[in-house]
Structures are given as structure tokens and as C-alpha cells.
Specification:
Elements: H1 7-21, E1 35-39, E2 42-46, H2 57-74, H3 80-92, E3 96-103, E4 106-112, E5 120-125, E6 132-135, E7 147-154, E8 160-167, E9 173-179, E10 190-193, E11 199-201, E12 208-212, E13 230-234, E14 241-245, E15 258-264, E16 269-276, E17 282-288, E18 300-303, E19 309-315, E20 318-323, E21 331-336, E22 349-352, E23 358-364, E24 368-375, E25 378-385, E26 420-421, E27 429-436, E28 439-447, E29 454-458, E30 465-467, E31 481-489, E32 495-503, E33 514-518, H4 534-538, E34 543-547, H5 557-561, H6 569-584, E35 593-598, H7 601-611, E36 618-622, H8 628-631, H9 641-644, H10 650-659, E37 673-679, H11 688-701, E38 711-716, H12 727-745
Parallel strand pairs: 33-34, 33-35, 35-36, 36-37, 37-38
Antiparallel strand pairs: 1-2, 3-4, 4-5, 5-6, 7-8, 8-9, 9-10, 11-12, 12-13, 13-14, 15-16, 16-17, 17-18, 19-20, 20-21, 21-22, 23-24, 24-25, 25-26, 27-28, 28-29, 29-30, 31-32, 32-34
Helix pairs in contact: 3-12, 6-7
């Protein structure tokens, strides 16, 4: 392990490497074409609006020139080749299995072999059967653009599987269905599929529900792509039919930006799920499964967003709901669908009450309800057996004529026993929880900062966990790596957790290169995960930390709400507090400290950059959001209004301007070195967002004078938001990031 050098020595190395990297050459010139907008009396000048036209040849040429400049720097860094080779070596021993699902007696999963570049779809008979390749996405490559499996769903009987394939990181998936026994295609492909869980099989496997995006004509507003959605059913015997969505039922009022899905369960009821933008809380409707797809299907509202439902599962006539209403850390309640009445939380039976833990999910197996919790950042699993008989639910007088009675083949008992906590083999994250309503027991995938992922089976007889051979053991040695957690007091006194991963022999002298990562949006939690490539960073004396900032879900809905809309500044102020705590406790110092974030984490990183440029030596923003005043106009923009706000109101404009780092960059300020990455096919964060931020910082930072504070824009023209990227793409990007940071933070032997 190479120890960090002194601050003075590190600065000398960084300056010397500037010359080696050829930064005397200027970055590409970016012309200024000011566009002036006025929002509620405030004038905003945008010098780089022209970069938003990604289809224009001059814009494409600019991106190419920027990437060429970035490559001229990154490829000449002395640590880059060694890092790439080390990361590739770590990846070459890394066989990954994930996204496991049952279909009848067959087990489906995605796997990437040690020498393979992307995940393929496999099937086997049970957990111990011989595996068979079903889908190789490489067969769908187009013009050297790699294809990827974006989703797959096996039918409940395992006879068919539906899957989505997109190319070049575009996430513009095409839905295909194949016969599992023969591999032959079933029905015609369906284009323009969203990748967010868009399909569901009818419980008998005879029909498929799917949601399709709109086709845009030249000149159409890009936001129309996701608007006014519909769900279709395909029974493979005739034309596909609309079953739910905008205008289908005049009594059901949907917002144009709502996302709609239809789901089938081991029940005589189907559910329609309405997601409101990127809100976690959904609206639910139920209808007799036998009536779905017929004219005037009797959809009845079950829950609204005000009921705080973020997760659910169905068994017979009973729906089990995960709700944050009057329970910021969530509780599980049960409600009967047979009566046709909307959920009344004051009358719903509480199955798992709120506690100091955060409930993060639930799912139904044949014999039990499995409930997942998060306790101080670590996963917990509860099991509630279906062994308590309860009286039948009161039905409405016309229940039989409406087809709402529970089918004879469905469970006769709906009660559950008191929750039993499963003893997990190690402290970590439950990355997958796999249940099937027709199969007893469950499978779980566990991992931690220092423990590679492994699958375990929960035995239905006694709840014991047994390790499976489904995931081969990792050959990456993390025995010399440790993890700990500290608390950082933020600007308002709130304690923010900070996870730290480090080599056991790293010196606590303030000189270690430290990469601090932060996200903080949508209520998503930054839980422990195993990252083999991280060893290449840790071996060189680096430290990795994660700030669990507000806006995430680490402490439930209240933690999320404390980092959204008007509270959004808490996310970067929490990240700053985490950085200050790491410096104070001698893990690093500002000369050796970098901050990184991706996607919505670009808001956090950008806010830290413009608020405390003196605290960080370098910044990495991966496919990051930086211009919040214009994001709303992109295809993915309207769905983010509940999280960030809208420029159409004065309050919303003020919030967005505060969190828009592009507009907060000031002339004359010495900002940290910065590396921005983007995939040119990104459907979530348009490439012009990091591009405009990079251009603005290049104009301010003085990198043209070779002062050691470069601003680079790395562009992957065969990539998108990162979903669907190949292993080789990930290796190259990680090598670029680590080499850039070691160069800037002063440890690049």
C-alpha cells in the first residue's frame, strides 16, 4: 500500500503532473450566445443555451472536441493505465448474479461471467438445477451500440418470459416475449417501453399487461413522450386492448404526467397503480380480474396519495399496504378488497406498527408475509406466517354480481402471526427479497461494504437461512478493508450519518486522498454495497465515504422531506458538514478531499462546489443535474416537479434557482478541479446539463493558464445514464475518475 505524501509534496506532484498531462493546451473554446429570461422580476442570463440543441451538428462537434480534450488529459495521467489494469483484473474474477425471479418451478436470473461484458438472462429448474441461457443481449447490438436487458418478467407458470432490450444506454426498450422451452418468439415486439417496471403477467400466465410510451413526431415537445399514459393487455389471441389510463374511465381523473400500471396477483382482483411523477406515494384502483380488459371495467379506488402508500402486495381478497401516513418510518396495514370500499386508515388492521426502524418493503409468499426493515443503515427481515384465521370480510350486497368474492382456490385465512425476525448471517443490505405467492419461503441477497453479495434461502419450516450456491463466492480480497460510521452535525444541529470504508493500515494524519459521495433525493437510501473496483482506490491509500444526507430515506419520510423542495439546501449543507467532520477527525484535509455524486446527486455536489469551493480539491459529477431552471422542459422534467419544484410559480422558481449550481457559479472564484461525465444517449439527464456546467467552470476556473484546476467533460457516445452500460464501459469510466482524483489529491505513484 502506498502511503499519502505530505501536503507540500502532494502539491508539487500535482503541479508537475499538470505539465505531464499537457494542460498547457487550452480546452475547446465555447462560444457565448446569451439568452435572457425573466422569472417573476428576476433576470437570468444563460450564456450557453445553444448547447441544449443536441441534434445540431455544431453542438455534436463541441461535445466531440470536449471529449477529445478530456481524453488528451486523462490518457496521459501516469496512474491511469495501472488503475485500469487493476480494475479490469478485479472485474475479471467477479461473477455476478442478480435480479432473481421465480416463474413456476423455474428460477430466472441475470448473470455476467468473469470474462463477460454484460448480463445475460438464464433459467434453471429450482435453485440447484442446471442453468440454461435464455437471452443474450449481444444479439441485439446496433451499429456498435451495445444492447442491454432493461427488465424481464417470467409468467407465473414459467412458460413464457417478457423482457425489454434497449441499445446504447438509451433505455428506449423494445418488449419481446419468448417461449421458455423453445426460445421462440411469441407475438410481435412492442417498441417504446419505459424501463420502470412496465409489464405484469395475469396470474394464469395467459395475458400480459404493459405500458407503452408515446411516439413523437418531429417538432413535438419532448415532454409528451411520457404523458397521458395507457396500459394495454395482450392475450396473444387478438389485437391488444387498452385497459387503463387517460380517458379510459371518465370517472377516473388522471393528471397528464401520471404513470400508470396494471398488476395481477394470486387474487380475483387486479390493481391499477398510478404514480404521480416521482412521488413515492401512489394511488390504487381495484377491479375484478375477470372484468379487466372488458368495456366499462368497474375500477374502484382503493387508496390515494394522501394515504401514504408506497408499497403493497395482495393475497386473496386482502391487500397489505406499506404506508407513511401518521407513520414517518412506515407501518404495514391490511385492508379487504372484497367490500369495494376505499381504504380507511383508522379502520385498517395494523400488521406491523411503526417503530424506530424504517420499513422499506413487503411481499407475499405462500406461507408468510415478509417485511423488510432498515435499522441504522442495516437490513432486517421479518416473517409473519399466515396462520391466524379471521372472520370473512363484510362484503357489499352486490359483491357476487361484481365478481369480487375470493376465488375458491385462493387462501381461506388472511390473518398473520406476530412478526418473527430472521437472523441474518451478517450486518449489511438486503439487496433483493424474492418471494412467490405460490411458493413457500423466500430468497434474499445480502451484501455489505466488505462482504460480497450472496443468496440465502429462508426455510419455510423454521425461518432459518441457508446459503445458496447461486452466486459464486467473490475472489476479491477485502480482508484488509474495514468500515465504520461517524455522525456529523449539520448547519442546523441535525446529526448526519457518514459511512467510511478504508484500508485497516491507512494513516489518520489528514493526508489520505478521500472520495466523499452523496446523493439525497427521492427518498432513496445509500445503503452498504460491495464494489470490487473500490479496492483499486483503497490499495493506494485512498478512503471512501458516503454522506447519508437529507433527501434520502435513511430515516423515513421525514428525512426525505427535509431534503426536497424548499428544504433542498440541506442536502449539500449536510454533505459539507460530513466533509468538515472527516477533516476534523483527520481522515483527510481539504487539499486531499474530493466530493462526487451522480444524477440528482449532481445537485448535492454542485451545491457543495459553489457554497464551499475552499473545502474540496476536486469534484466529480456523473450524469449530474446542474441547470434546474431548464430541466423541467426535458422529457423527464415534469415527473421531477414534486421533488424539486416548478419554475411556473415564484416560490418554485426561487427554490430551483437556489439549487441550480450552473447559475450560482461566480466569476473570480477559484473553484475545485472538476470532472463531468455524460452519456450522449442519456434519457434521464440530458447531456447539455453537465455540458453547460463544464463550459461555465472552464470559463471561470482559469484552467487555460495551467494552474492545476482543470475542468473536463467526459462523453460516452455509446452510453446513457449508466443503466445498460457494459462492464468495459464501467471499467474505463472508473479508471478515469480514480486517476483524475489521485492526480488532483496528490497520491499518484
Amino acid at each position: 500500500m502506498t502511503r499519502a505524501r505530505s501536503t507540500m509534496h502532494a502539491a508539487c506532484i500535482a503541479l508537475a503532473l499538470v505539465g505531464q498531462a499537457g494542460l498547457a493546451a487550452n480546452p475547446p473554446e465555447t462560444r457565448i450566445e446569451p439568452v435572457t429570461d425573466t422569472y417573476f422580476g428576476t433576470t437570468i442570463v444563460d450564456p450557453y443555451r445553444w448547447l441544449e440543441n443536441l441534434q445540431a451538428p455544431d453542438v455534436r462537434d463541441w461535445f466531440t472536441a470536449q471529449n477529445d480534450y478530456a481524453r488528451s488529459v486523462l490518457d496521459t495521467l501516469p496512474a491511469r493505465t495501472a488503475l485500469r489494469d487493476r480494475i479490469a483484473a478485479l472485474s475479471s474474477t467477479d461473477e455476478r448474479v442478480h435480479n432473481v425471479q421465480w416463474g413456476g418451478d423455474l428460477l430466472f436470473y441475470e448473470k455476467r461471467g468473469p470474462q463477460e461484458d454484460r448480463f445475460k438472462l438464464y433459467v434453471r429448474n429450482g435453485v440447484d438445477g442446471a442453468e440454461r441461457l435464455l437471452v443474450d443481449p449481444g444479439k441485439f447490438d446496433v451499429d456498435h451500440q451495445p444492447a442491454a436487458i432493461n427488465f424481464y418478467v417470467p409468467s407465473p407458470n414459467g412458460k413464457r418470459v417478457a423482457f425489454g432490450i434497449s441499445v446504447g444506454g438509451s433505455e428506449n426498450a423494445t418488449l419481446r416475449v419468448i417461449d421458455v422451452a423453445t426460445g421462440g418468439a411469441v407475438g410481435e415486439p412492442v417498441p417504446r417501453m419505459d424501463i420502470g417496471d412496465p409489464v405484469s403477467w395475469r396470474i394464469d400466465g395467459g395475458a400480459l399487461f404493459y405500458a407503452q410510451l408515446n411516439a413523437l413526431k418531429p417538432g413535438d415537445d419532448p415532454i409528451e413522450k411520457f404523458r397521458n399514459g395507457h396500459v394495454y393487455v395482450r392475450d396473444f389471441t387478438g389485437p391488444d386492448r387498452v385497459v387503463f389510463g387517460q380517458g379510459v374511465d371518465p370517472a377516473i381523473k388522471l393528471d397528464p404526467d401520471d404513470t400508470v400500471r396494471v398488476r395481477s396477483y394470486l387474487s380475483s382482483f387486479a390493481l391499477a397503480v398510478v404514480q404521480h411523477g416521482n412521488e413515492n406515494e401512489v394511488t390504487l384502483y381495484a377491479a375484478p380480474l375477470s372484468k379487466v380488459g372488458l368495456p366499462n371495467a368497474p375500477w374502484q379506488r382503493v387508496a390515494t396519495a394522501a394515504d401514504g402508500v408506497t408499497g403493497f402486495d395482495v393475497r386473496g381478497e386482502w391487500i397489505y399496504l406499506l404506508t407513511n401516513a401518521q407513520a414517518p418510518r412506515y407501518r404495514v396495514v391490511r385492508w379487504s378488497l372484497a367490500g369495494g370500499e376505499p381504504l380507511a386508515l383508522d379502520r385498517a388492521e395494523v400488521v406491523v406498527p411503526e417503530s424506530n426502524r424504517v420499513i422499506t418493503g413487503l411481499s407475499v409468499a405462500k406461507e408468510a408475509l415478509y417485511v423488510q426493515q432498515m435499522d441504522g443503515g442495516y437490513g432486517r427481515l421479518l416473517r409473519l406466517q399466515f396462520n391466524v384465521k379471521v372472520p370473512p370480510a363484510k362484503r357489499s350486497k352486490n359483491a357476487k354480481t361484481r365478481g369480487e368474492a375470493t376465488a375458491a382456490s385462493l387462501p381461506k385465512t388472511a390473518g398473520v402471526a406476530r412478526a418473527t425476525e430472521m437472523a441474518l448471517p451478517f450486518e449489511g443490505t438486503i439487496e433483493e427479497r424474492i418471494t412467490d405467492p405460490m411458493r413457500a419461503g423466500a430468497l434474499v441477497r445480502l451484501a455489505s461494504w466488505t462482504q460480497a453479495p450472496a443468496y440465502f434461502a429462508v426455510q419455510p419450516a423454521n425461518g432459518a437461512l441457508t446459503k445458496l450456491a447461486l452466486q459464486p463466492p467473490s475472489r476479491v480480497d477485502f480482508s484488509g478493508i474495514a468500515a465504520t460510521r461517524i455522525m456529523a452535525k449539520s448547519h442546523d444541529g441535525v446529526e448526519v450519518p457518514v459511512s467510511i470504508v478504508y484500508a485497516r493500515n491507512v494513516a489518520r494524519n489528514g493526508e489520505a486522498p478521500l472520495l466523499l459521495n452523496a446523493y439525497g433525493a427521492y427518498g432513496l437510501s445509500e445503503e452498504p454495497f460491495f464494489w470490487p473496483a473500490l479496492l483499486a482506490w483503497l490499495e493506494r491509500g485512498g478512503v471512501f465515504a458516503v454522506a447519508h444526507v437529507r433527501g434520502g430515506g435513511e430515516f423515513g419520510k421525514a428525512w426525505h422531506d427535509a431534503g426536497r423542495l424548499a428544504n433542498k439546501p440541506n442536502t449539500w449543507l449536510d454533505a459539507i458538514a460530513a466533509a468538515e467532520a472527516l477533516v476534523r477527525e483527520r481522515w483527510t484535509s481539504p487539499a486531499h478531499l474530493a466530493i462526487s455524486g451522480g444524477s440528482a446527486g449532481g445537485i448535492t455536489v454542485g451545491g457543495a462546489l459553489v457554497t464551499r469551493p475552499d473545502l474540496f480539491r476536486a469534484v466529480v459529477s456523473q450524469v449530474g443535474v446542474h441547470d434546474l431552471l431548464r430541466s423541467e422542459l426535458t422529457a423527464n422534467g415534469p415527473s421531477n416537479i414534486p421533488e424539486f419544484g416548478t419554475v411556473t410559480t415564484e416560490a418554485g422558481f426561487r427554490m430551483l434557482l437556489a439549487m441550480s449550481s450552473y447559475h450560482q457559479v461566480k466569476d473570480g472564484v477559484a473553484y475545485p478541479a472538476a470532472l463531468f461525465t455524460t452519456g450522449f444517449n442519456d434519457p434521464r439527464v440530458d447531456s447539455w446539463e453537465p455540458a453547460k456546467m463544464a463550459a461555465r467552470l472552464q470559463a471561470v476556473n482559469g484552467a487555460k493558464d495551467g494552474d492545476g484546476r482543470p475542468v473536463l467533460l467526459r462523453v460516452d457516445f455509446a452510453g446513457g445514464h449508466g443503466i445498460g452500460s457494459t462492464k468495459q464501459q464501467a471499467i474505463e469510466e472508473t479508471a478515469d475518475i480514480f486517476a483524475f482524483l489521485l492526480w488532483q489529491l496528490g497520491n499518484a505513484p
